[in-house]
UniProtKB/TrEMBL annotation, chain A:
Boundaries of every Solute-binding protein family domain copy: 98-416
Gene3D superfamilies given in the database record: Dipeptide-binding Protein, Domain 1, Dipeptide-binding Protein, Domain 3, Periplasmic binding protein-like II
Highest taxon in the source lineage: Bacteria
Keywords, alphabetical: Membrane, Transmembrane, Transmembrane helix
Transmembrane feature ranges: 21-41
Protein name: ABC transporter substrate-binding protein
InterPro entries membership: Peptide/Ni-bd, SBP_5, SBP_5_dom
Organism annotation: Leucobacter albus
From TrEMBL, chain B:
Organism, as annotated: Leucobacter albus
Keywords for this protein: Cell membrane, Membrane, Transmembrane, Transmembrane helix, Transport
Ranges for domain ABC transmembrane type-1: 95-305
InterPro entries in the record: BPD_transp_1_N, MetI-like, MetI-like_sf
Primary location group: membrane
Pfam families registered for this protein in UniProt: BPD_transp_1, BPD_transp_1_N
Transmembrane segments: 97-119, 131-158, 178-198, 236-263, 283-304
Protein name per UniProt: ABC transporter permease
Compartments where located: Cell membrane
Membrane topology: Multi-pass membrane protein
Family affiliation: Belongs to the binding-protein-dependent transport system permease family.
Automatic annotation (TrEMBL), chain C:
Domain of life: Bacteria
Sorted UniProt keywords: Cell membrane, Membrane, Transmembrane, Transmembrane helix, Transport
Lineage: Bacteria, Bacillati, Actinomycetota, Actinomycetes, Micrococcales
Protein name: ABC transporter permease
Species of the source: Leucobacter albus
InterPro entries xref list: BP-dependent_transpt_permease, MetI-like, MetI-like_sf
Membrane topology: Multi-pass membrane protein
One Pfam family, short name: BPD_transp_1
Amino acid sequence: MSESNPQAPRYEKRKRSKAPLIIAIVVVVGLVAAVAAYFALTRPGSDATAKNEVAVGLVLEPTSLDVRNDAGVATGQVLIDNVYQGLVGIAAGSVADIVPVLATELPEVSDNGLEYTFTLRDGVKFHSGADLTTADVVESLAPALTPETVGYAVAVEAVGDAQVKLTLEAPNSLLLWELAGSKGVILEGGSTDGLQNSANGTGPFEFTRWKQGDSITLDKNDAYWGEPAGVDRAIFRFFPEGRAAVNALKDGDIDVHTALLPPLRAEFEGNANFDMVRAESADVFTLAYNNARAPFDDPRVRQALSMAIDGDKLVGTQNGDAKQLGSPITELEPGYTDLTSVNAYDPEAARALLAEAGQQNLSLTITAPNFYDTASLDLVTSQLAEIGVSAKVKPVEFPTWLNDVYSNHDFDLSYVDHAEARDFGNYANPGYYFGYDNPEVQRLYAEAIASIDPADEAALLEQAAGLVAADAPAKWLFNYTPTNVVSTKVSGFPSVNTNSRVNLAGVTVE
Amino acid sequence: MTRFLLGRTGLLALAWLLASVLIFATLRILPGDVAQVIGGTQASPAQIADLREALGLNRPLLTQYFEWIGGVLRFDLGASVVTGTEISAELAEKAEVTIPLTVMSLAVVLLVAIPLGVFAAYRNDSPVGQLVAASSVLASAIPVVWAGLLGTLLLSSWLGWLPSQGFPRDGWEEPLQAIRSLVLPALTIGLIEGAILFRLVRSATLRALDADHVRTAMSQGNSRLRALLTQGLPGVGLSIISMLGLQAAALLVGAVVVEQLFSLPGLGTMLVSDVGERDLPKVQSTLLVLTSVILVMGALVDVIHRIIDPRLRAEGEE
Amino acid sequence: MKTLRRVVRRPVGAFAIAVLALVALVSIVSLFWLPQNPNYASGNVWLPPSADHWLGTDGSGRDIASRLIAGSRVSFGVALGTGALASVIGFLLALLGGLGKRPVREVVAVGIDVLVAFPTTLLAIMLTAVFGSGIPIVIAALGIAFGVSMGRVMRAEFRQVQGADFVVAAQVAGLSRTRILFRHLIPSVLPVYIVQVTWTMGTAVLAEASLSYLGFGAPKDVPSWGGMLASTQRFVSIYPETVLWPGLAITITVLAFFLFGDQLRDALDTRDPVDETAEVPR
């Protein structure tokens, strides 16, 4: 199509005019467009053939279906409870109450708190058709519960055909919590081979398909051992960008969306077809300081940064879908007290502390995964600037965050949502990426998890949380309590901690 | 004709080879250590070594290149380093969105550009014709993203005719929904790209109106319109066809931005997220596939042009 | 100068020049003064326009007017940078492909044809995949892509001028090659070049906006018009006015570049191109 010289065509060639061809093309194109326009303008009526399925919109898509080796919560959010199960699970409507699942009841615990004996449920089958055996349990749990993964040794052995015994070296109240999470899921033969792109568990739903960048489809498991699922099919769709979710909800393409981006709530206010449900959660948006590294090894610097940030304004950036926090323990977890007055917003005092520490010209980098809404981060950097701290946000992909911050501790400040419940232990573990090393906190925490009485445990945790709050190893920006938009056609959708797991047992669709 | 076909095929092969070398060189050689780029700044040396082994980076570059090309020619595009899925299968799945989108936007382009272009040229002396021409300059200055957002506001938020974003969960199993969700994106690309084709149609029609054979037809007592339609438009049609290759390429690329804007699970969205995840092998294969499509379309258009253009058919080579 | 005066005298030309001058002025002023810190997030989100915030605030509580003003320097900088890089590449390719020895000429010609088919956006994506995102990468990608299409147009121009009578006469008169090049060849392709570079700069502003929108352009802490579109787009149906301003700024700037190019073409009386559209780089 370069410089072809348009020569006058020879007239004798003109006998067969090309006009009909052109007209034909125009007509065909016109017809296509007319049909398209017809489709566009005739809005499809409500689905007459109501299928018994529920479609749930989520923000984050897993990068792998390997539920055990995924460091985020995206995989577990979809697959735990629905496809994969453990000996125990988390009671509906709570964040941390343990109930038996594949075990017939909560374990018998020996008096010294060291031995846990579980009795396996009878007649449980994997989706592959194989029966659940004690061997599966042993092979699943033994490699998952090691000092490297949970911080303490657990001996796992089968007792007869129906029982499994776990033996600890020291009492630990968190063992059941771990067993209810991704480390406790029971895999067939304990193997994760081929499970990066597929799933095979014992739950009420079986894995059908993962359409990358779009959705995960689960179908009802007809051979389920327990109460069968209330829907024939469950589809999880991923909407990293909020507006598509709004449209999908309005069009009936999804029935529920968890954690709708706060400013988008306006789209559903006064819409009678949807309920907006505030989901209580253990999500703590955490601005972590690298405590092991200067200048954060000086508590005055940490306290100054914490005091520079106005928690009230932060809640405002979330359109109220958040609660202020003064410690890493949220209301739903044992050990909570209101500590928001500790290191509360006070820029004057913050500046004074920095001056005292001789750190007036700090220049810091905040490493943050790039999928979060940036409104709160923008506020944080601006408020830090007010006390003379220049902070630059470095948005990274989540795997990079895991690598740089989580694994290699190479960061100044880190911004991430700690969605897991009962994760206070991170502040008692100097090897965690916070690098926070306070022997008193560690002692209190060890005592707390070793205590057999839950009330003692809560009191000790409360004490430890008070120390941590004052010492400010991180700023707990807010407890995110996301709004789930639920179609009125759906009943029984969980309303607690849906950012970590969405248990569809008991969900029905009209 | 045979000579032309052979020559054009040769040029196509040459262009494809060059493009593949360019892509390979940029994505495999320029970064220095690809494994380091994929692994990120702080991956452990052992992880990097594993990755290097898995990607075959230890072998000579030429071997790597020929293995890649050989695979591509057998439609084996390798696997993603992030998710481990087959690239060709995923491309096929995403193409189910991108190809219909491109075809629909082409329809919009033709529907906008041809009638308006001919009209604006035919009425070149009237204010209406000038106005249409001026609006085309304006349209070509609008950023695609903004055009899409304004379209969303008008057709989706205010009039509620079309969905604002997304693709139905069952895809083409719900053809009506699927087409509806592509209308706004197709209009967005189509109007912007249509403005460019419009300018070509208009100038080609102006030339046609001025051409000897059209004037002759007029002097023989045909009306200006009739003379244009019967004598002038075939030439215009040829100019349009000769532009279609570039146009289709532009539409395909326009889809990258527009798919992102409308959250469509197509090739563009996939490519953008793969770049973010540094899935270089996947980006490399995807880019080559897209480039191949563009090159083949260009060649096909040339051949079709050749077949139906009486002037070129009568001549020999060049 | 005479040409410029001719452009200014027409209303469209005057409009284009006025807009471009304004954008240039605003981007220079923004280096020294802005109504507010464009990155300062007050936490007072989505405020309506007021005396403090002329255009209101965005979802982080940042002043939209200041971001808009600060964004002009990214757009204008990318336009200038791309124009410069594309000129260098364009001239180089055109000289080699138009005036070089026959084998060189043909290799360059085929090379240009292949490269022109490689879409700008894909080139930018490819470079981003390797080097990460940033304004220099945008300028590099756009400069290379537009330089190639500029080279194609100017190569044809060189080929044509080379056969013109006055050049042949100069050759016969025994003028040196460099003398002919600078005295005759380059001056006679300059009008085409000037029009090309104007269009290139306009298209660069458009392309930068798209790339910044995709997250491949200006970094998050550098306000840019494309980035503003990206950060407000999901709230378009709730706060439509916040999407209006950056889009309008881009459109008017690009329009000014295009109209200026059109007017220059008319004023310089460069011959009507064969395919008008083939000249506009994309």
